[in-house]
Amino acid sequence: MAFNNFRILQHPVLGEKKNGKEVRIFLDGLPIHAVEGEPIAAALYAAGVRITRLSPHKKEPRGAFCMIGRCTECCMIVDGEPNVRTCRTMVRDGMRVETPRGWME
Amino acid sequence: MQGKTGSESWQEVWDKSVNGPRALIDCWQEIPCDPCQEACAQGSIVLSSGICAPPALHAETCNGCGKCVAICPGMAIFLVDRSIGSGLARVTVPYEMRDEIRLGGEAWAVDGEGNYLAEGRITRVSGAGRPGRTMLLTIEVPEEWALKVRGVRGRRKLLEEPEEVEAIEAVEDFAFCRCEEIDYSRLREIITQGEFRSLPALRRFSRAGLGYCQGRFCQSILRSQFLADCPEEDREVESFRVRAPVRPVKLSRLGGEDG
């Protein structure tokens, strides 16, 4: 899963993509390329990942919604810590991100 | 509303613009905002009575530098230059898109609502090399449009036939409380069956607004739906306490062990 097809390279407000150190994070064990200084949600988005969790009760797929840390739709398990807002948490090399799959039965 | 405050000073701008570019201020918002006054090295832009007053221009001292055009967050300042004569005027507008606008190219001058005014030629593009910064485009149009131009659109885009926009059908259902997974239809069901008299009771029963975000997204919909569906004489409590969102914190963090 090393492709970067959805990375935003040019943006009318943000400008050009800034070059940063390449790091690697793991989504459910799969390696994903990320750039230092970007949130986890951005790295997942760039890698084409749209589902960040399954909802607790109905186990419906959910994805990052507000991108500013309010809605908690992007909460994932980061390095074993549950309910981490991935849009507000920056990547770190070797970070392990897991997809929550609803309440355990 | 547009042009409300400017119309008196616009005559002056119109008169002086035969000598070179002058700033045309189309700002009627009485909001605390003064970057134009700060940006003007000539001291030609003055907020007469406090920071909420709309700016006024002294066309006599304005040298048409365009700093105010680039800095106005509301994109409400323009330059008008009639010095080229022969019935033409050059209007400079702020531009923040990245499309096919090119120097020397044909473009359409539009008004504040995007309606076509006139065809013109782009005679100047400044600031294009700096992403994230406002560009200034100068378009040459017949003089009669000089005070009305508020924007520029690439000609190619407009020449395409506008797509038929189908009427959007009424949204039947949507995720109303994202945290507690309540759909809008479910909320209506609860309201009609429950005959709730108090908003907190409805909130506790439906659980809308009691999840992670504590109603950041749903509380206004919940309240307006309650007010819409519950007859006024039956209502007992119409408000609820708004609480901060839930942010789990590890005990070890509180104990100073990490983070």
Describe the protein in words.
Chain A: One of its GO terms (molecular function) is oxidoreductase activity. Chain A: It comes from Candidatus Solincola sediminis. Chain A: Keywords: Oxidoreductase. The complex is a heterodimer of chains A (about 100) and B (about 260). With about 100 residues, chain A is mainly beta. Chain A is built from one helix and nine strands; from the N terminus they run ββββαβββββ. The longest helix of chain A has 7 residues. The N and C termini of chain A lie far apart (about 30 Å). Chain B is of the alpha+beta class and about 260 residues long. Chain B has two domains: about 150 residues, no CATH class; about 60 residues. Chain B contains eight helices and eleven strands. Chain B has a seven-stranded antiparallel sheet with strand order 1-4-5-8-7-6-9. Chain B has a two-stranded antiparallel ribbon with strand order 2-3. Classes of the chains: A mainly beta (about 100), B alpha+beta (about 260). The interface between A and B is medium-sized, with 22 and 17 residues.
Outline of the structure:
Chain A has 105 residues and is mostly beta strands. Chain A has one helix at 40-46; strands at residues 10-11, 15-16, 22-27, 30-35, 53-54, 61-62, 75-78, 81-85, 96-98. Chain B has 2 domains: 7-159, no CATH class; 175-234.
Ordered list of secondary-structure elements with their pairings:
The complex is a heterodimer of chains A (105) and B (259).
Chain A: E1 10-11, E2 15-16, E3 22-27, E4 30-35, H1 40-46, E5 53-54, E6 61-62, E7 75-78, E8 81-85, E9 96-98
Parallel strand pairs in A: 3-9
Antiparallel strand pairs in A: 1-2, 3-4, 5-6, 7-8, 7-9
Chain B: H1 7-16, E1 22-25, H2 35-39, E2 45-47, E3 55-57, H3 67-71, E4 77-81, E5 88-95, E6 106-110, E7 116-126, E8 135-142, E9 151-154, H4 155-159, E10 175-177, E11 182-183, H5 184-194, H6 199-206, H7 219-229, H8 251-254
Antiparallel strand pairs in B: 1-4, 2-3, 4-5, 5-8, 6-7, 6-9, 7-8, 10-11
